[in-house]
Amino acid sequence: MTPKITKSLSAQELHKSGENLREEDKFQEAVDALTSAIVKYTIDKDHNGLVDALQSRSLTWKHLFLVHNKRDYLKLATNDARASLLIAKRKNIKSELSKCYFGMGEVHMLKKNYKKALLYYKKSLLFYKGSLAEKGRHKYHLGEALYRLGRKKQGKEEMVKGLEEIEKGKEGVDSFVFNVWKSGCMMRLAELLFKDDSEKAKEYLKLAGGIVESDKRLVIRKRQLQELKDQFKAL
Questions:
Q1: What would the pLDDT profile of 50-66 be if each residue is shown by its tens digit?
Q2: How many other CB atoms are found less than 10 A from the CB of residue 143?
């Protein structure tokens, strides 16, 4: 698949194809397309594109880790996130720093190193200059790190603020992205609150389910929602 795609598509087209494949839950195909995009961006010396593609592949490795629970995928996700940040710094691509720090925060969350994750999430917000909805996404992840560090009240407050900002910034982002971020925040709140406030957790889970069921494009979220429901049943 990859050699054929490499000859016929540009780096940008491969990049977009990889991201579309990832959202369809086709992770290995996404990795192939994104790897080809990374090679072309490197040849073209398109550092902005390269930074973005590395972030995207890191996210894809992350999903593979979550599905298969193989540490090698987490190592690959970490390597790509680190490379993306390093290139952004060396090439002084300030517009990408927030996303790069956010990506580093995500891999450290998977490693359960919540202190480092919190540090990177704080940096991602420090450099952030994008839409209000995406800022809310960054904020709720920071809140999750706080919650998992035992600062539950502050963590929950930050997550709720993040959810409010996602909602307020709805008009500034694509509907698919909005639904991904909003449902993701609600699902994370449901997971974290289940032991401390089960009724509120169930409320967030129900709201997230409504979003997921209303948008057929949320293939990954649908699988993750079912996994979360199964966890609730097991507890």
A1: 999 999 999 999 999 99
A2: 28
